[in-house]
Hints:
By secondary structure, the protein is an alpha/beta fold. The protein has a domain of 208 residues. It has twelve helices and nine strands. The protein is globular.
Amino acid sequence: MIGLLLYYIILYPLSLLPLRILYLFSYFFYFLLYYVIRYRKKVVIQNIQRSFPDLEPITKQQIEKDYYKHFSDILIEGIKGLSISEKALTNRYKLRNPELVDAYFKKKKSVILCSGHINNWEWWIAFQNAALSHQAIGIGMPLTQKSLGAKINKRRERLGMIVTDSKDYKKEIEKLDDSPYALLILGDQSPGSVRKSYWTPFLNQLTAFTFGTEIIANTYNLPVIYYTVHKVKRGYYELEFKVLNDNPRSTEYGEITKKYVHFLEQDILNAPSQWIWSHKRWKKSIPNDLNTIKNEHQKKFNTRFRNL
Length: 308
């Protein structure tokens, strides 16, 4: 009930305002989040310090402040995303090289699109199905407020995107028969289980990553395409595709995930303030038996996909 009231009384009505007006709220959000509430300030500071141990304190603090300004804009743009038109998205969210993905569609091949929570991911969720020839399917994490999550997902789907979760995505794929689809996965979430994760160095610390993209790619033999979202200016973005792997069943265990992590890390290093630092990315402790976990994880993968 609270989620529905929040949606109908505050979020959706706000989304109908012009962005130039909404950005005035962003300045207020920044002041509130950074100076008053200090929203997850300890998490942000700790994440930045661990990720950039060699940077000067003043540089780290600047990343921190720039992040809260960026985060406030993302919140506002997320609200606007509930009602933003396809025409506005076409103007504000440009694709640099859509032909890379369209080439797979012409071959009637489905693909996986993967990236991280950098810049405005919400607009892409809404826009993907209109921007590309493939049927868009997005695998997401359910919100705590289920009623609010259902409303937000309905708005995300208004241009044809199918929003699902890790339990039901197979059903959505089966419904499409042989129609090519582009499965959207944002793989920088903190994994649910450390024993089912892929552990690798990331931003100067050993990090657990969800292994879902690699599993799905091998299960359905799907090419994996990484995309970078560049911020051109406030409220304007450009998306750039690059092939991460074209033949997943020819790869070694972890190769796809490791390359994904490399691409993601480069994006973060290129624009440090534009990643979601307030997310509790490293809340999972490194297990004492990590080597055993790694070996078991690799063995299960090789047994399932490589007959080893």
